[in-house]
Amino acid sequence: MRKLNLAVRKQRTESVRKIGAEVESFRILHVDDDPLMRDVVELALGLDPKSVVMSCESGQAGLAAVPGWQPDLIIMDVMMPGMDGPAVLARLRENPETSKIPVIFITSRAPAAERERLMKLGAVAVIAKPFYPATLAETVRSHLLSIKLAAIGFDFTKRLRTDAAKLASFRDELRHGAGCGGVPDEFQSFVHKLAGAAGVFDFRDVSATAASLEDAIIEQRAGRGAPGTMEANLDALLASIEATWPNEASRRRT
User: Fold this and answer.
1) Does 24-131 carry CATH code 3.90.76.10?
2) How far is Cα 49 from Cα 44, in angstroms, rounded to an integer?
3) How far apart are the first and last CA of the chain?
4) Consecutive sets of 10 residues in the chain, 254 residues long: mean pLDDT of each?
5) What does pTM read for this prediction?
6) Which of 80, 102, 152, 189 could be a cystine partner for 124, CB 3.0 to 4.6 Å?
7) How many CB atoms lie within 10 A of CB 195?
8) Would you tell me which CATH number, out of the four given (3.30.450, 1.10.1760, 1.10.260, 1.20.120), belongs to the domain 151-253?
């Protein structure tokens, strides 16, 4: 039996490794008027076997390449003749088919004010020159991970609307007589999962109020809760969720 368990564990380990090895590659479009920088960036990003790079020598060429290349990410110089990086970004954002492509600027002018300006224009990150070529691929991959997590986080705001409707339904049930021992297991499980998920996606107020509500549910089910405490915590959680809705547009841009 022990040998069988070891074999099963080994098989599961190999399956996990296989899944990790099958991560899809991602396409990067690099736009820079300096041929030396194009060579350096292409060589540096080539250290990541999952990245496939196309280089363009101007903003106009980069825009022309986007429809056919369909990049997952665009890395772009800021100062370029003819059409600079911010102008290219503006054109990308005007087109619904390219508006969601993440853009990272690489620039030698990277004081805090300039970084803030570029981020407000819609860049997802700013990499300062000079950078260390050996770590560029790792830096870019970390930004890609952040971008994907942010996208999932935005999807979580949509889930919060559904969760709010479910919580409102629970509140109606409570108002119609759920008392000690009458709080369903489903309610506590639902709130517990919401507290954890909200924390993962950095909705800290929602996570904290959900955790407080779960504590109140536990006390209520044990017969120790003060009258109205659970209901008050539930109302606080609903208010916390509703407070996130005006921020959906800003979360989409980050």
Assistant:
1) no
2) 11
3) 52
4) 43 40 73 95 90 95 95 94 95 92 87 87 89 88 73 71 89 67 78 86 87 90 84 93 66 40
5) 0.56
6) 102
7) 21
8) 1.20.120
